[in-house]
Design brief:
This protein has about 270 residues and is of the alpha/beta class. The chain has 9 helices and 9 strands. Strand 1, helix 3 and strand 2 form a beta-alpha-beta unit. It comes from Microlunatus endophyticus.
Length: about 270
């Protein structure tokens, strides 16, 4: 599920994401777009996500907002076990590898999905899907409870400056004005121009505040770009990246529960 809807959090308030029903209509078009040779998901996003995800052999994986389950199927073929994907569209792969379970459900109700009750996972993915959560903190807290002791969440979001820039072009305003605006705006998706989505703006500090409120800390953050070869091969994609920046990737781990437990790598004065 891609990041086509957004939530207002942190300094922008505590409201939830846009309705995920729009995604159910957009899902087929998105999968067709992602399969293109020059798809930024194929060229930039998935390779970077896959690198941060690390070795999956023998690891249990939950993909929240998995789309048709294609990426999770790749992980299963690489040795992931106990793999579960959930997506509201139900537009799942017909040919799936053994050991891959796909559940039609709303990620906003992650804490009440029957197929997840009593289970834990080594790795949890939110790949451009988190913006659909009605209550972002609640959704991340529910995911945190599903992690094993050494597990982590890999979460990606569209760079918010992209959305601010799009609004400056639409409204004839200034970048800072739109970046800090709380007003939503409506647009039609390139995957299906019959579907209109209303977006709610967010800032980078909003994201950080959500992670903290959900009891998570950032182990790693990345802003992936095209490789040198792909920049030359797909100049139109590099032009888009130069203007709209791309995505943010966060590797999140639960905050220590003990009052005196330090974060890994933290320094303390004697």
């Amino acid at each position: 599920m891609p990041d086509n809807s957004r939530q207002t959090v942190g300094s922008h308030g505590s409201g939830g994401g846009d309705s995920s029903q729009g995604w159910a209509e957009l899902a087929p078009g998105y999968e067709q777009s992602r399969a293109r040779e020059d798809s930024l998901d194929r060229l930039v996003e998935w390779p970077a996500q896959r690198e941060l995800f690390g070795d999956v052999a023998g690891r249990s994986v939950l993909d929240v907002g998995c789309g048709n389950g294609g990426k999770l199927a790749e992980l299963v073929r690489e040795g992931a076990t106990g793999a579960v994907g959930i997506d509201i569209s139900g537009n799942f792969l017909a040919d799936r590898p053994p050991g891959l379970e796909l559940i039609q459900a709303d990620l906003s109700d992650l804490d009440s999905v029957p197929g997840l009750a009593g289970r834990q996972f080594d790795r949890i993915l939110f790949l451009q899907s988190f913006g659909y959560a009605r209550e972002p903190v609640r959704t991340l807290k529910a995911a945190r409870e599903l992690l094993t002791d050494d597990g982590f969440i890999l979460l990606t979001r569209t760079q918010p400056i992209r959305y601010a820039l799009e609004r400056t072009e639409q409204n004839g305003t200034m970048l800072g004005e739109e970046y800090f605006s709380t007003a939503g705006y409506t647009y039609r998706s390139g995957w299906n121009d019959e579907v209109a989505l209303t977006k709610r703006p967010y800032t980078i500090s909003d994201l950080l505040n959500v992670f903290s409120a959900a009891g998570l800390w950032i182990e790693t953050a990345a802003e992936p770009q095209l490789s040198e070869d792909d920049r030359r091969r797909y100049p139109h994609k590099q032009a888009w990246m130069d203007k709209y920046l791309g995505i943010l990737i966060f590797k999140l781990r639960p905050l220590p529960t003990g009052p005196q437990t330090p974060l890994p790598g933290a320094r303390h004065s004697s």
